[in-house]
Design a protein that fits this description.
Elements (H helix, E strand, L loop, with lengths): L1 H6 L7 E6 L2 E7 L2 E6 H8 L5 H21 L6 E7 L8 H8 L4 E9 L12 E7 L8 E7 L6 H13 L4 E12 H13 L3 E11 L15
Parallel strand pairs: 3-9, 4-5, 4-7, 7-8, 8-9
Antiparallel strand pairs: 1-2, 2-3, 5-6
Helix pairs in contact: 2-3, 3-4
């Protein structure tokens, strides 16, 4: 086991800090967390999971995440949900937030690679083809919650840069990432947000994983 962990450079430096139902929450640093659950392991490791079973497992994970996000105080203020029209809705965090009774605003953005990108995300050649609404909250503080799969982080850089360019006078307390997330993506997104003086909070499912050379597959979960 030690040889496997070292060969793929898996990070195991996490401390357990709490639990919700079938889940356990681990902290890597002050702003990096992992939620491990039976449902998360099934989604991550069983490619046969699909349809309504897939949706119900993701909703269960989102409910754990919503409880933890609330505990962190990230639902105390105004929340804006930034959807990336790809994986975002599949994570079901929108539904879990509705169940808490917390109100939130939503932005729907569609970034597209300008080349055939299946299993190859090695360059950041993306363009925004859809964005609604065009306006974002002005003159008030809020948390930006972004559910998505974070592999290279290139999509997030495009979406977030687009967001901040149209964000006139708004004050983002923190950007909260939720989903299956890699270490290269976190480092890349954190660096960008640090330049904007915005905190990054990461809530990853199962692990903060290494990334394969194609910028797409996550070795912890096998070929996507």
């Amino acid at each position: 086991m030690a040889d496997i962990l070292s060969s793929f450079n898996f990070d195991t430096g996490f401390d357990e800090i709490g639990s919700y139902g079938n889940s356990r929450v681990y902290r890597h640093s002050n702003d990096e967390y992992v939620i491990d659950s039976e449902e998360g392991r099934k989604v991550a490791s069983d490619p046969s999971v699909c349809g309504t079973t897939f949706e119900s497992l993701n909703l269960a994970m989102a409910r754990y995440a919503a409880k933890f996000i609330k505990e962190l105080g990230l639902l105390d203020g105004k929340v804006v949900l930034q959807h990336v029209l790809r994986a975002s809705l599949g994570y079901r965090i929108r539904d879990a937030l509705h169940e808490t009774g917390k109100g939130f605003s939503e932005i729907w953005t569609r970034p597209v690679y300008s080349y055939t990108s299946y299993r190859s995300h090695t360059t950041d050649d993306l363009e925004i083809t859809y964005d609604e609404p065009a306006a974002v909250p002005e003159g008030e503080k809020f948390y930006l919650l972004k559910p998505d799969t974070e592999a290279t982080g290139f999509t997030s850089l495009k979406v977030l840069d687009h967001f901040f360019k149209k964000c006139k006078g708004c004050q983002v307390e923190a950007v909260v990432l939720y989903g299956f997330i890699s270490r290269p993506a976190i480092d890349r997104i954190k660096s960008y947000l640090h330049s904007k003086n915005v905190k990054t909070v990461t809530i990853a499912i199962e692990n903060i994983t290494p990334l394969a050379e194609n910028g797409y597959d996550m070795p912890l979960y096998g070929i996507d």
